[in-house]
Amino acid sequence: MIPARQLGIAAVPALLVGLAACKFPELPPLEDDGGGTDATPVACVDMGPDSPDPSCPPDRPLCVDGTCGGRCGSDADCSGRPAVQSVCHVSSGSCVACDEDDEQAQPATSEDDCTNASSSVCDSTSHTCRACAEHAECYLGVCDAGRCASANEIIFMSANGSDGANNCDNPAPAAGCLTLSFALGKVSTIRKFIAMEPSATPYLARATADRAEINGIMVRLIGYGAELRRSGIGDGEVIEVSGGASVVIEGLTIRSATGAGVGIGIKMSASALDLFRVRISANQYRGIEATSGGTLHVRRSIISNNGGGGILFDGTSFVLINNLIVGNGNMNTSAIGGLDLYASSTTTPSTFEFNTVAENTASSGTPHGVRCNSVQTVASRNNIVTSEAVRPHVVGGCVHQYTLFGRVWISS
Fold it and tell me: For 287, which of 17, 61, 85, 306 could close a Cys bridge (C-beta 3.0–4.6 Å)?
């Protein structure tokens, strides 16, 4: 090949002749999509100026001078059509199933076009009814496996609310009940969701100086944009989960528990705890302490700056995926650094994957990163674990694969 800088003007005609001889593949013709100004004309019976005609395509619902081509301007222009074409999407002029954008309209109102519980959200692209994918898509803020929960299933909380008899029934902004302990007293087999209104003001665990206790019940707590602290003066955990409870907590920040040896974000025993996108930080002792059996799932969460270590787990099995466990423990008194994991089950596998365990510290003789004492072989893959230069990153029976280990200098 001749370098470009040596290709002179005299070579241009030859180059053009060569290009002319090349045969490039022909692109197929564009297919008619059935709509728009270039769509095939469709005849209709003109019943008056720009009259609706259900026989016209939904993107050209009006009959104009004997041809389908007018845009709808209101729901009346979509009358006589199937339910999936009964609503006018004004900005496009098409008759569709619904006109919201990735949200549920207020239930039981004239604007609620998606009345099926399993498909109550209007998709912003197709403007058809679909299942919810996020809590924010639901009018009351709770999406449960594709279904927007109804008001009689939800306990509402507000940092500006109060603990009154029926306050937990009120979804209005700045209404709802105030403390988590009071809200937990309203949980039943039907009302198993607690929705916390986002607030810059921290929520309190209880009206008196104590923790929020979740004992033997099934509950799902949704707290995106909310923060929970222990109430009043007194040492201890922020939340205690016990008695075979089954608990899911999403989006909530749990912090500032006080007390040497007792200031824990969440203390769990013999229960099932699932944490998703939570932040547990700045607790004087540990972030999470889960003992006496049970299961712990932590996903896409941050466990940080807890004075006595990140997570202590002594139970049946655990699943820790895609978390940041950073800045926990101290060089003088911490029995654990990032994590201390023990799973007693030989049949239920435990998983530790895609986590970053970094800049944690612990007292002499303890790894700063992960101590894994499980009787089973734990799948530990695709993690990042750092440790101070003179300490081991990990100890115990976990088999670490595809994991990056690094050294850092941590001042005492």
Answer: 306
